[in-house]
Design a protein that fits this description.
The chain is an alpha+beta fold and 426 residues long. 39% of the residues lie in helices and 18% in strands. The chain is elongated and about 125 Å long.
Amino acid sequence: GRMGKKTGFLTPKAISNRIKAKGLQKLRWYCQMCNKQCRDENGFKCHTMSESHARQMRLFRENSGKYMSYYSDMFKKGFMEVARRRARNRVKANVVYQEYIKDRHHIHMNSTCWETLSSLVVYLSKNGMVDADKTEKGWYIKWKDTDPERMARRAAAERLDKMKMTADAVAERQIQEQVARAHKLAGTDKDGGDVEEDKKELKRDEKRGELKMNIAARKPIERNVTIGSTAVFDNAKATGKKRKKMQQKKSALEELMEEQEREKKRKKDAKRKRPKDVRKENWLFKGLVVKCINKRVGGGAYYKKKGVVKRIHNKFEGEVKMNDSGDVLRLDQEHLETVIPGIGKPVLVLNGGFRGYEAELLSLDDDPKKDEPTVTVKIAAGEWEGEVVKDVALEDVCKLKSWKDGRAEDVTLCEPPRSRRSQGGK
């Protein structure tokens, strides 16, 4: 019979072609617009002369900037995704690039605005996405986390850890002072040794006989019936003792009545409805301790420095007197950050139902079920004085400069208008 040419899916040539196409080919023979990988220079030349390629290139010429920007953005995202996994520590930029191009369907660099890997690394470094340095062996990069949500969570966690460390240090110092005071009252040193005399071992004297106890019947007390000078004075002493007992009983009764009054007040306060949740964009108040977060102010001299708000302008601007230098700056609230004090220090509620109320910071709560840490405060002034408020967002409170007779310095300014009217009516 006639010998024909073998064709089919399982022929050696077809299998060989599939094996070659499966692996990574030369990047310069890849057409990004058509998503086609050519095997050699001749195949790439034939592809560029095809009608489909010409049609795609006409589309590219009509809006070249759009396509170039799209491919550049996709390449940058893919490269940074690999860098997030591989460049947590300082590595060669080429190592990250080689891992990125292992995917056959990756966006090729010849279709982006960067001609070389070096130009891409310089661009990423200038935009603060990686830390880059050039050595004799080439470019090295280190990934930087620039996600604002993750950065905010990390900053909040760091502030919470710092405040917890401060609170633990204060508690430990108080415990040490109490232990030292107890040792001083007991007359012992810190090691538990007796300061006055050494301890002696108890030894029984064998020469002594058995211990005998003589319990005699108690004699009846003779009542003094005679009425004389001594009896009068004795009666006077007795009445004095009775008077003291009556005073003690009276003071105990008064305490009981006061406790009942406090309980009634507590129940009455519990029945009251809390104020509605009020949230506003402006959070600046006079007397707040804030931190400058603008690197450009004063050439960076005031960056991360603390100050006290002295005056408010247009609700969103404040005059801040810096603690270190004493300079007075007029800054927008966008360039300021709240400060969280230690436990037991004064704060001001900036948003929520108790907006504008002064309070005492009771605790810092880091519940893993919640996205962000919260605080518990106790209202220190106004009609809600003594009220404990839980689950207040960390960003909704800020440190006050100082207390004044149990309240902050400017109570009338910090409290809401309804609170001031109710106090004025009383």
